Amino acid sequence: MIQKIIPFILLLFFVLNVSQSLAQRYGTAVGLRLGSNDFSRTIGITAQQRILQNITIEGIAQSDFSRNTTLHVLLEKHRPIISKRFNYYYGLGYSLGWEESNIKNPATMEIITTYGNTTNGIDLIGGIEMTILNTTVALDYKPNFNMSGREEFYRGQIGVSVRTVIVKSKVQDKKRRQRAREKRRKNRTPLFEGLREKFKKN
């Protein structure tokens, strides 16, 4: 499965990197994420917040309600494929959780599984998303590289997310411009304001 997914993502990045315009139709989006790998099937909450023009921060909390529960924070860059409604993204982040771990014993040919291991690691992510009718649907692949707490160094996960747009990008941009204008107004010197009022009277 991994051998099939990674070349696809690399090819997608190569072909679509020719587009350099800005992406995203939303500022804030919240919803559900379904994840799947060789170890578990999870359901979780995902939230994305745009922090720069084409950069978002995403938080994911997911669990299989049995052996694996993880938390993830990811910084992601978005680029359009056709328009702002359809784009691809990639990024990296940090994860922590409580997971199962499988230890192989070569002498006895046994696999010993332990549960409740406190883990932390590094995430990568690559995906595509489409926004229609204030709803964002995304498909991603999220590799995880374990730093501590788990025997397996690498685990990959395919995820499908459906998010509701809470704040649109144009609304967020408008508020940002208003804050910038207000900041410039407050930074004007009293002398400048006095001269301005004097010229208005004349």
TrEMBL record:
<feature type="compositionally biased region" description="Basic residues">
    <location>
        <begin position="173"/>
        <end position="188"/>
    </location>
</feature>
<feature type="region of interest" description="Disordered">
    <location>
        <begin position="173"/>
        <end position="202"/>
    </location>
</feature>
<protein>
    <recommendedName>
        <fullName>Outer membrane protein beta-barrel domain-containing protein</fullName>
    </recommendedName>
</protein>
